[in-house]
Design goal:
- This protein is mainly alpha-helical.
- The protein has 15 helices and two strands.
- Strands 1-2 form a two-stranded antiparallel ribbon.
- β1 and β2 form a beta hairpin.
- The longest helix has 25 residues, at 138-162.
- The radius of gyration is 29 Å and the shape is elongated.
Length: 286
């Protein structure tokens, strides 16, 4: 893989390869790259070429700098083109991960004008949209429809139980069961209905999920509620979850709805929701 990628540099970007071979050290190679990027900006081959040349220049200007990466909480030494110099000169073993060199190859090819980014026409985009009306697999879509129908039955019972409490989502006395189901199906498209029918307690959430939550999760959610963490899950989000032991993986959505033990433990001591945020007391975090 690495050897194949190196051959692409040699064949597609011979001047860059030559600069690396003729540069006795990284600094000389870096100077060549700066000169190259500045030239491509001046040539203005295309908007994409200039954009990539500016990116190359920005990377070069930050080469050999040490920055403190907030997301990792550690210092990082930037050596992008130093690595490229070693790679092109075949200094040492080939790297097992070549992603960075693949990215740099494409960056230089676009800057060179050897690779053109073609934007699809509106007609082509619409053709793609008609071909794939949804990105959801049929199995997942069918399961979610099944869950939705089950939730609608549960919502009918919930509305019947609470009766008329000043809500717009109530049944008239003479409605049949099928009419009630049909009414909830209509309400399903109303976002206000979902807000009104949202699960607000761990017990209610577990009920909607067919009592499938482990005791440990229920205890953690109860702890979260007692600590004041907002708890609010709409029927729509519930319809995206899979309560079967087999079937599609819903962890991405489930982790958004069900708080982790780490979050519950940390809640109240969080200084910033994002590690990249630098928070100062008394100043807005924005």
């Amino acid at each position: 893989m690495a050897k194949t990628l190196l051959n692409k540099f040699v064949k597609s970007l011979p001047n860059l390869y030559k600069a690396a071979i003729q540069s006795n050290d990284e600094d000389k190679f870096l100077s060549s790259i700066r000169a190259y990027a500045s030239l491509k900006i001046e040539e203005n081959i295309s908007a994409e070429s200039v954009r990539c040349a500016k990116t190359i220049l920005t990377i070069a200007e930050n080469e050999n700098k040490t920055i403190y990466e907030l997301s990792k909480g550690e210092k990082i030494f930037i050596e992008t083109f130093s690595l490229l110099w070693s790679f092109l000169r075949e200094s040492g073993d080939y790297p097992s991960n070549t992603d960075i060199y693949e990215d740099l190859l494409n960056l230089f090819l676009i800057a060179e004008g050897a690779k053109i980014i073609k934007q699809p026409s509106e007609k082509k985009v619409r053709e793609w949209m008609r071909r794939w009306p949804s990105g959801i697999e049929r199995e997942v879509a069918d399961k979610r429809d099944e869950v939705k129908r089950r939730l609608i039955v549960q919502l009918v019972k919930k509305i019947e139980k609470r009766g008329a409490v000043g809500s717009r989502y109530t049944f008239s006395e003479n409605m049949t069961y099928q009419e009630k189901v049909k009414m909830v199906e209509i309400w399903w498209s109303d976002f206000r209905f979902h807000l009104s029918m949202a699960a607000r307690t761990p017990g209610e959430l577990n009920h909607y999920l067919e009592e499938s939550l482990p005791v440990r999760v229920i205890k953690n959610l109860s702890k979260a509620r007692n600590k004041g963490i907002p708890f609010f899950v709409t029927p729509y989000y519930l319809s995206l979850l899979n309560t079967d032991e087999s079937g599609f993986d819903d962890n991405t959505i489930r982790s958004y709805i069900i708080y982790s033990e780490a979050l519950v433990e940390t809640y109240g001591n969080i200084k910033a929701w994002e590690k990249e945020d630098i928070v100062q007391a008394g100043k807005p975090n924005a």
